[in-house]
Amino acid sequence: MSQSLARALGILIELGDGPRNLDELAAKAGVHKTTVLRLLRTLEAERFVHRDGDHRFHLGSRMFALARASLEQHGIRDVAAPHLAKLNESTGQTIHLGVLEGDPETSHTVIYLAKYDSRHAIRMYSRVGLPMPLHATAIAKVLLADLPAPRRRRVAESIEYTRFTENTITSPDGLLAELDRVAEQGHAMDDAEHETFIRCLGAPVRDASGRVVAAVSISVPEVVLDRDGVLALLPDLLATARAVSADYGYTEGNPE
Fold first, then answer.
1. Cβ neighbours of residue 119 closer than 8 Å, sequence gap 6 or more
2. Would you call 222 exposed, middle or buried from its count of C-beta atoms within 10 A (0-12, 13-18, 19+)?
3. 242 by DSSP, 3-state: which?
4. How far is 201 from 215, CA to CA, in rounded Å?
C-alpha cells in the first residue's frame, strides 16, 4: 500500500469517530499539516470529506453512498451467515434469522430468512421463506418492538390471535405489553408459546442508523434444556446479534 493511500485511509478512519480539524488530523497521522491538507483537498474534491464553517472536517456524502452500496451488495443474510453458523456450532441448537418483509410502513409479515438446524433429533417445523406468527415467536416480537408506537398498535390490532399453547398471547393489549418489555430489555422470549416443547430467545440486529432490520433467535427443545438452561444461552445470542450488527454498519453507542 502506498504511503499516501495509507494516510488517506487513516484520515477517513479517524473521521469515522467524529469531526476533526487540520491540527488534530496532522497530529494523529504524525506528519506535517501541509501533507494532510493536500490529502484532504483531494478527498474533498471527490466528496469523501467535507469541511464545515469552523474548518472541521467530516465524512462526506460519497462515503455514505459507498456504505449503502456495500450493504446492498452484501445482504443481511450473507453478513449474518458466519456468525449464525458459529452460534449453531457452539450451542448445537437451532438458529434462525428473521426479517419484516414488504413495505416498511404497511407490512405485517415476518419471515425466516435463514435457518441452521440443531444437532438433536427433535427438529422445529420452521422453514426459510415461510411467515411466522407475530404474537407467538421471539423474532417477531423483537422486530415489532422496534416499530413506532402507533404502528405497533395497528399491527397488534390486526392480528388473528390463534392460541397455539396455553402460554400464547391472545389479545392486542397482551401483545403490546409484551412488546414494551422487549423494547426495554433488548431481547424477547417465546416461552413455549408457539410449540409446547420449544422455547426460543430472540435478539435484534441493527443497521448503521440503529434501526432493527432483522432478528436472530436460538430455539431449544424442553427435553434438551429447561427454561433456566435456555436463558443461560442469552449472552451468547446477544453477542452474536451484536457481531452481526457491527458487520452491518452499527456502532455501539449509536442513537437507538
1. 92
2. middle
3. helix
4. 10
Host H or E run for residue 185: helix 172-185
The predicted model scores a pTM of 0.71
CA–CA distance, 214 with 139 (Å, rounded to integer): 8
3 state DSSP class of 117: coil
Question: Hey, which bits of 56-120 come out as E strands?
Answer: 56-59, 94-101, 109-116
**Cell numbers linked to 174:** 397482551
Instruction: Tell me the residue type at 239.
Output: A
Alpha carbons 10 and 175: distance in angstroms, whole number: 48
pLDDT tens per residue, range 63-82: 877 766 655 555 888 899 99
In this prediction, residue 101 carries a pLDDT of 77
Q: 81: closest CA among 120, 113, 110?
A: 113
pLDDT tens, residue by residue, 126-184: 667 778 899 999 999 999 999 999 999 999 998 989 999 999 999 999 999 999 999 99
Answer yes or no: are the C-beta atoms of 205 and 248 closer than 8 Å: yes
Spatial CB neighbours of 248, under 8 Å, sequence gap ≥ 6: 71, 76, 79, 80, 205, 206, 207, 208, 213
